[in-house]
């Protein structure tokens, strides 16, 4: 058996892996589960063969049956609008290929570096800014880990390592622990940050072993979730996130502002309140990265700022995420101000 096959076997033996293995993998499966027809979408659906449907069943269960405008459904169903080309939207909107300094390593910002710890995801979000990223050239398997760690070790200005992907929590716990231990051995690295949507769509991924990994080294660890709508959170999230928080892991969230999904002040306010009830602090509210295929989700900067002002007026400051846009070539995320 190949090493890849062995890894997949181990993943699927775990509870969250079994859930992942049962994911829906076509638009028709998704529509059938929600008692919908293709004709419920007058502008049509996309075949999206290069970026196929992938949706775990627990996420589908949070959607409303018979509702073609369900905000969770719209995040994962490929619409015909994806096939339209737009001159302001590109394959690499953040210019990441220029910052792809080594296999699996993206170094854009001072003091921190991003490792593409896994190339796969548990869900294919239709607005994903890396939907066209060359993962085949950036697979960070065990054989490439040491090269990536050497890059970090040679740059003493790096104090934080960010695990991203794909989704880094697609790694099974044993491999993740090995990678985190290797990062902790680099003395000038002080912080570990893990960005993941997997625990949002499959809460079972928040295992006791994951808590041990994130708290088992000298590194200060944070987990940044990606929740876009309050209905994405469940009682199981509350239970398992509380364990992580009690163990000392900082829990943050970043949200992408999406037309038809969460471009409502009341939805965003409810999301911030629900996050706090789940021990998670709102971190960023991102204006959409302009990736080709996601243009139908775009909310203008002026509209975004109006929503942000409404949040400021109704929430305490610690529940208001920073409104930002990420731009290629900039040394930091760009805050959005008045228009």
Strand content: 5-15%
At the third CATH level, what is the topology name of the largest domain? TIM Barrel
Average pLDDT level: 89
Query: What's the architecture of the largest domain, going by CATH?
Result: Alpha-Beta Barrel
Helix content percent band: 25-40%
What is the count of helical runs?
12
> Number of domains in the coordinates?
2
Give the ordered list of helices and strands.
Answer: HHHHHEEHEHEHHEHEHEHEE
* Major β-sheet annotation: 9 strands, mixed
Low-confidence stretches: 1-12
Across the major sheet, the strand order is 1-2-3-4-5-6-7-8-9
Give the total of beta strands.
9
Query: CATH homologous superfamily of the largest domain?
Result: Aldolase class I
Give the CA-CA distance, first to last residue: 58 Å
- At the first level of CATH, the class of the largest domain is Alpha Beta
For the CA atoms, what is the radius of gyration? Answer: 19 Å
Structural class: alpha/beta
Outline? globular
What is this structure's SSE topology?
Blueprint: H1 3-13, H2 15-21, H3 27-33, H4 57-60, H5 96-99, E1 105-106, E2 112-118, H6 142-153, E3 160-165, H7 173-184, E4 191-196, H8 198-201, H9 208-215, E5 220-225, H10 235-246, E6 250-256, H11 265-277, E7 281-286, H12 301-314, E8 322-325, E9 334-335
Helix pairs in contact: 1-2, 7-9, 11-12
């Amino acid at each position: 058996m190949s090493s890849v096959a062995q890894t997949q076997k181990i993943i699927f033996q775990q509870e969250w892996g079994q859930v992942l293995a049962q994911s829906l993998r076509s638009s028709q499966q998704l529509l059938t589960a929600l008692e919908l027809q293709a004709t419920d979408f007058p502008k049509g659906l996309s075949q999206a063969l290069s970026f196929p449907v992938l949706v775990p069943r627990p996420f589908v269960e949070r959607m409303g049956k018979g509702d073609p405008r369900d905000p969770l459904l719209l995040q994962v169903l490929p619409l015909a609008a994806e096939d339209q080309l737009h001159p302001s939207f590109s394959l690499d909107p953040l210019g990441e290929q220029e910052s792809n300094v080594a296999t699996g390593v993206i170094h854009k910002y001072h003091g921190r570096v991003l490792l593409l710890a896994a190339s796969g995801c548990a869900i294919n979000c239709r607005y994903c800014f890396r939907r066209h990223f060359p993962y085949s050239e950036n697979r960070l398997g065990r054989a490439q880990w040491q090269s990536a760690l050497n890059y970090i070790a040679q740059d003493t200005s790096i104090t934080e390592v960010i695990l991203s992907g794909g989704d880094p929590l697609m790694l099974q716990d044993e491999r993740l622990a090995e990678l985190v231990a290797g990062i902790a051995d680099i003395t000038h690295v002080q912080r570990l940050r893990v960005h993941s949507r997997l625990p949002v769509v499959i809460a079972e991924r928040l295992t006791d072993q994951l808590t041990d990994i994130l708290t088992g080294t000298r590194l200060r660890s944070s987990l940044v979730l990606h929740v876009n709508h309050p209905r994405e959170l469940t009682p199981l999230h509350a239970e398992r996130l509380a364990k992580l928080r009690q163990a000392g892991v900082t829990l943050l969230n970043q949200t992408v502002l999406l037309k038809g999904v969460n471009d409502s002040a009341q939805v965003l306010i409810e999301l911030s309140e629900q996050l706090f009830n789940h021990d998670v602090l709102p971190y960023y509210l991102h204006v959409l990265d302009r990736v080709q295929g996601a243009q139908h989700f775009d909310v203008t900067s002026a509209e975004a700022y109006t929503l942000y002002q409404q949040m400021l007026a109704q929430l305490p400051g610690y529940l208001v995420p920073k409104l930002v846009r990420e731009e290629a070539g900039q040394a930091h995320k760009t805050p959005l101000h008045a228009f």
